[in-house]
What does this fold into?
Amino acid sequence: MQPRYQLLRILSDGHFHSGEALGATLGMGRSAVWKHLKTLAEWDIVLHAVSGKGYRLAHPLELLDHDAILCFVPDEARSLLPHLEIHHDIDSTNRHLMQKGRLGAASGHVCLAERQQAGRGRRGRAWVSPFGANIYLSVLWRFTLSPEALSGLGLAVGVAVARALQDAGMPGVALKWPNDILWQGRKLAGILLEMTGELSGACSVVVGVGLNVRMPRQTAAMIDQPWVDMETALDAPVSRNEVAGRLLRHLALALRQFEADGLSAFHDEWMRLDAANGKPVTLQLHNDSIAGVGRGIDASGALILDDNGVIRHFPYGEVSLRMVS
Ligand code: BTN
It folds into this structure.
């Protein structure tokens, strides 16, 4: 384990710890402790150093913990998730699992990270992923279904994320087609599905979820759309281990259900959660935009738009929806 991560574990309680005590625990001198503590700035972690007292974090930090996460995953879902990896610092949990998938990792393999250096968003965008602040989670799932049968999968995953958030005490969560989770019109979480076809015609999918829990204000300046995090919405501290566990529970059960019943098992719930139903929206196509009123989704997951009385269906693809405020 990296010394700076060991130091962080000790400091995560938010109390002061002297350089001497930290050094004694890690078996190093005070100047080596200071050298490692300085590198925490690379993870955007703010440290208070007070002479006579020592060091403490500006904000207490709940680090991700395997057992604390699994406390919130009941046996039925746990049996679908054979492996859970937690990384301190990774390029992208999705990229990592795409590679693991090619090397034969089992369905239900999970990867979580404290930080992503190259978090991937939809449409080639970056996903801002500072250390210890939010949830960056990916699950590899092997379907016996063809790629065409998976077209509504992102919508089912949206319902699973909304269920997990409701379980975690978060009211007022809504979905924006195809893959955004909103709270009061601001983006709370995003979903990125990446697929690999197989010779058998079956398909493996990496389901990636990024959820804002407590976005540091200095990092937030990099986000180019209206956003919110759970702690702001709830005005209360949130346990990332609990939320990660609840997400894993609902994702595993939803992925199994999607394999058996497809989108039909999620359609009505998606419609109830639809942020755009009956609202004015614009749809961005490649070089064009269409204004209309959102009318939910059809059985295949295509968006239904009321274009001045003409009902049009737009399949999932490189099309994005904007709410007109
Ligand atoms: C979006 O653009 O709305 C989708 C964002 C998805 C981000 C998550 S964070 C965990 C996983 N790993 C990634 O690199 N991206 C997804």
User: Anything to note?
Assistant: The longest helix spans residues 240-261. The chain has a mean pLDDT of 93. Residues 92-94, 116, 119-122, 125, 127, 136-138, 179-180, 190-192, 208-210 surround biotin (CB under 6 Å). The longest strand covers residues 186-197.
